[in-house]
Amino acid sequence: MIEHIDIKGVHTVATPNLKKYINRKFGRLDRFVPKADRSAVRVEIALVETKHEAAKQCHARATIHLPHAVINAEEATVNIFAAVDIVEAKLRNQLVRYKETHGTPRLDQRLLRRLKRVSTEV
Predict the structure, then answer these.
(1) Contact (Cβ atoms closer than 8 angstroms) between residue 49 and residue 80
(2) Is the CATH number of domain 5-121 3.40.50.300?
């Protein structure tokens, strides 16, 4: 679980249910971070609610601070929970790419590289 999650509300109050929902959604993102970097991960979430003449707009912005990068995602919808879901999905996709480049290679990838080296030597 990601333990450092900061939630800020701008023009809105983050209710306990919303905070619990955000902690549950973003806490699970640690599985997409390399194990060596998990203790240094910090997440900042800003929830902004704007009311125009006709409709309400909810923005969710999230920033993940990692040892080698900073990852951002933003979404605006009518429902704040939907915006949080979409931002979490965007961050998950970016973290998968981060883990591929900064994490240790999986066993099958290491075996393929070794087999390629052996086949070129023969």
Answers:
(1) yes
(2) no
